[in-house]
Amino acid sequence: MGTTVRVAGEDDFAQIIGLDSAESGQDRQDYWHGLFNRFRNRPDDRHILVAIRDESLVGYIIGEVRDGEFGLPRAGWIVHLRVSDQMREEKVGTRLFDTLCARFRRDGVARLRTAVARTDTLVMAFFRSQGMMAAPTVQMEMDLDDRDQRGAS
Amino acid sequence: MKLQIASRIALYAVLMLASHPDRQLSAADIARHFNVSLNHLAKVLRDLNRAGLVEAVRGAGGGYRFSGQPRRTTLYDIVDMFENVGQSAADVTGDEDGDPISQGLAQVFQEIDDIATSTLQSITIETMLKISERHRRRQTGNGQA
Predict the structure, then answer these.
(1) Among A29, A32, A116, B73, which residue has the fewest nearby CB atoms (within 10 Å)?
(2) Largest alpha-carbon pair distance within chain B?
(3) What's the whole-model pTM score?
């Protein structure tokens, strides 16, 4: 039986949280409910898609259209992508990716963006295999404690 | 990032062989195509052969062919055979209690090393061939325009 990709319904949210928790080892209930609420408010250009195999949720991709952030032109951003470990090499990620791309095109978006941890070479390799390259932006960060120490010196 | 000659030759060879999975290519063909030393290429091919990435086919019509897994083998796997990727930070690193200038420089160079390493580790031979194919299509398109 094949994998189908469809728009997530309310009944899928618990399974999305469950898959994230199982694969990442983190319990982020508050984060997820906040995200679901945010996406409910703007379903036209915010997309939560799920991959279903044998009536089970085996992957999800979440993306939204962002305009002007970081000085960048309008683009579709992939904010989450996860596929169950058991479903690797089954093209589930590619199906989710393609479906989200089609929705972004329908939204009038011509560019796709995402951010990946430098150490997460598996996910980075997946995005590269889909044709993505490094963006002209660099994420930056610092510990606020360091900032406090500098201010004191 | 400046690659050692051996790394560059190895990347050329692996990618050219992987892009022709249905036939063997001679070392002379590859050397001529990329304008590299045949002697140097032969040594690199021996190393790649020992690593299981290329296979020598003997006899008439023989040559080399790619024997790795294009979806698993990354650019890092190849470059790492010939040089220490992410070595620039080590060049300026002192001990932990050492000079703060060295430590600061090491932090910055480590950032560069990390980006280079993750880039090479995330590009498989299959992906690299797709990137090359896009360039080929662009060239063809430009040629027709």
Answers:
(1) A29
(2) 63
(3) 0.89
